[in-house]
Amino acid sequence: RGDEQQRARVAAEWDAAMCSVGMAYIVGHGVPPEVIQSLHELALRFFTAPRESKMRYCLNKGYGAGGYVPQGVEAVARSAGNSGAPPDLVENFVFSHRGDPALESVPVPAEPPQFQGAVEQYWDAMVALLHTLMRLSATALSLPDDHFEQCFAQPVTHLRLGYYAAIPAVPEAAAADGAMRYGAHTDYTGFTILRQDPAVGGLEAQTADGSWHGVPSRAGALLVNAGDLIQVWTNDRWRSPPHRVVNPPPERAQLGRLSLVFFTGPADDTLVDALPSTHG
């Protein structure tokens, strides 16, 4: 919404963040705080309900099929080649197609009763933000503002609600085999828009020199990182950063942690080739 000079400054900052780390905090993003807070609170109510009520929405098809996935199933570090990685200390609910039960076969939780509406509101806000991010990216890459419009007219998006229960609730054997809340990995496609838990940290990102750095939540900010497809599309100009969620220190081990993760990508028929401004 700024003038040409302001837009150029923000685009340069975005380019610098994506080149160096592949991750950036964004503020002034336009997502209403009440939309974020509503989904956060309702998701917490869902995850802290008895296991039997959550398992009604489990498809028993592993992670990626959608619906509820209990702890002990997902081992995300295996996607990065670590075939022996133990299961992550996390449970998930994954929505696709805006969470509309008429558009997908995955059951939508009936409890809490406002859950469905909160998912739809959050989804709409994230898609609007995604279009802004793609216009910003086009400017940062010296491309026309509308360069990505066609391939993101019907983006492929998923909402992952990830809940990391208190560590004492985990069987001792799981913690003993090196399990962490979420193993080291990269995301696969476009930008990931993350709303971190405002009270409980643990997210770390790996920089190009191989060192790990804490990425704490910031009030009012969302965190965006590039996925593997973005790195390929920009001919390695922008990074898809490895990241993980480490276990909390003992004095905070009894605190649960909730992440709202919105995965994005272009339509499936998009040709992904090195963008013109990224050719060497």
Blueprint of the fold:
Layout: H1 4-20, E1 23-26, H2 33-47, H3 51-55, E2 67-69, E3 91-96, H4 115-140, E4 156-164, H5 172-176, E5 182-185, E6 192-195, E7 203-206, E8 212-214, E9 222-225, H6 228-233, E10 243-245, E11 257-265
Antiparallel strand pairs: 1-9, 2-3, 3-4, 4-11, 5-10, 6-9, 6-11, 7-8, 7-10
Helix pairs in contact: 1-4, 2-4
Q: How can the largest sheet be summarized?
A: 7 strands, antiparallel
Low-confidence stretches: none
Q: Tell me the radius of gyration.
A: 19 Å
Structural class: alpha+beta
Write the H/E string, N to C: HEHHEEHEHEEEEEHEE
Short account of what is shown:
The chain has 280 residues and is an alpha+beta fold. The chain has 6 helices and 11 strands.
Structure notes:
The chain has 280 residues and is of the alpha+beta class. The protein is 26% helix and 19% strand. A seven-stranded antiparallel sheet has the order 1-9-6-11-4-3-2. A four-stranded antiparallel sheet has the order 5-10-7-8, with no helix packed on it. The longest helix is centred in the middle third of the chain and has 26 residues. It is globular and about 55 Å long.
